[in-house]
Amino acid sequence: MIGHLRQMWQSRQNMLRAGILGMNQRNIDYIGRYNQRGNYPIVDDKLRTKLLATEHGVGTPSLRFVVREQHEVRHLKARLDGMSEFVIKPAKGAGGKGILVVSGRAGDRFITPGGREMTIEDISRHVSNTLAGLHSLAGAPDVAIIEERIKLDPLFAEYSYEGIPDIRVVVFLGYPVMAMLRLSTSDSHGKANLHQGAVGVGLDIATGQCAYAVQFDKRVFRHPDTGMQLDSIEIPEWRELLILAARCQEMSGLGYLGADLVLDEEHGPQLLELNARPGLSVQIANGTGLLPRLQAIEQLQCVHSRPAERVDFAMAKFAACPSQTNTSGSDYPCQQQKSSPLS
Asked: If you count DSSP H runs as helices and E runs as strands, how many of each does the chain have, helices first?
């Protein structure tokens, strides 16, 4: 019993030294302090987020149409006529639940990225279930969003299994403080969800290069399905992507948030959704804690007014390897960092 308590104490001490932000501290000191409850509906409803992003000129997949009532489901066949690629999302879904991606058509059948064929009856049933709240938080009635399908940037073609990789950026007071790339796998069934088995690749804020990578909370060096080396990853248009994330603070009014972004082959960085309660797994993916970075922002005497200025500050302040700040050198932090304080 004494040995077990000693191990628990040592583990806690190691976490404190590593600057790990725990759930209670996140909820009280950051979410509770910096996120006004009145702003939550803006990000908890993907349709409201999308419309707000469009209003603020923040790139987001184009909205095709919205289904709000069950009687509208009977008109789906006509409304989808001529559309070979699209995505259906519940406005109030969470964790990727209820998202249906159609990547092509074969006659009157719809094809998913995994090769599954669906009829219009299947699509209609999915939309009807979405409206009934099957995929929404707390089972509340919902609406179905039909939007443009993201076209995978060729850079990621060999780094993901079926799904589209996304980039989670944690933004604090308008400063991007930590980021990770989430790569879908066969274990995660093509979804970029770390809890289901997706690979989390920690990204150097300074360069967008791989700094660390995990799957099921254990360090990995290759994608489990494609075998690609993860330390060769370097996100293009990195500064522009961080600026987009930084702009989400003014757009949403939230001081502490997670911005989920993707790189579209045609349109570049695009906002998928915002999260007022971003999870803490980004620390595991990066092999380091959030707390020192959050405290560094809190200690600033004067907050930078422009998103680009905040991004430049963060890129310089939180570089995984100082010699690589604002460069694209060949020595990846992922290769230099031999162990994680979280392991």
From this structure: 12, 14
